[in-house]
Amino acid sequence: MHPSPIKQRIRESFDRAAATYDAAAVVQRRVCDRLLAEFKQPSPATPRRILDAGCGTGYAARLLRRRWPEAHLTGVDFAPAMLARARHDTDLCCAADIEALPFADRRFDLWWSSLTIQWCDTAKVFAEAARVLEPAGRLAVSTLGPDTFSELRAAFAGVDRHRHTLPFDTAEALVAALTQAGFDRVTLRREQHIVYYPDLITLLRAVKAIGAHNVGAGARRGMMGRAAWQKLEAAYEQQRQAAGLPASYDVILGYASK
Length: 258
Prior knowledge:
The protein has one domain: Vaccinia Virus protein VP39 (Rossmann fold), CATH 3.40.50.150. It has 9 helices and 7 strands. α1 crosses α8, α2 packs parallel to α3 and α6 packs across α9. The longest helix is centred in the N-terminal third of the chain and has 20 residues. The chain is an alpha/beta fold. The chain starts with a helix and ends with a strand.
């Protein structure tokens, strides 16, 4: 089945970003570290078969391997260039959409995904996670909440009416989607992570370098005019702090059991 036009643009965006991703993904690494640090696995149980859903270039796989060296680790991503960089860090790599996993039911005992599901249909992702997890299997997920890039939205508000960020899920929506998929013991932790940049062009280039520039309905098409750009810069400058121009990430860490 061919991906939708939006999914195809997302895939192409991350394929283009594969070469620059690791150098630019400061927040992504930080969030991945936090997701693992807050993961509580009932003792003495340890995961035996782990699925890294949206494995990217393999950063999470390396963390998971250090934590559970005996586990069998499967990485899934739908961007081939990303997947090529993760192959050395997993036991099995698979090019696939995490909304439709090519695995049998009850194959894994830990479903892991860090900063991927914001690009997906959350209900479909969690339904697939529940399907491939064995009974009592665990889920660990990080995603971005609605306050992500709030400074960028505020700056753009006076420039145009286009949507310049993804429509991120609320914590309440995530709990509802997990419950609907059959998960219980759902716990969420919300954190704010801020990265500072010397100027707006550096900030936007950093976002583009991780493949996270906006796609889909409501997004601007084409280049901004000079006057609009200057207006945007001036609006963002009003939010400057001592460390530079802030870019906020509203991070949600979620854990649940099947």
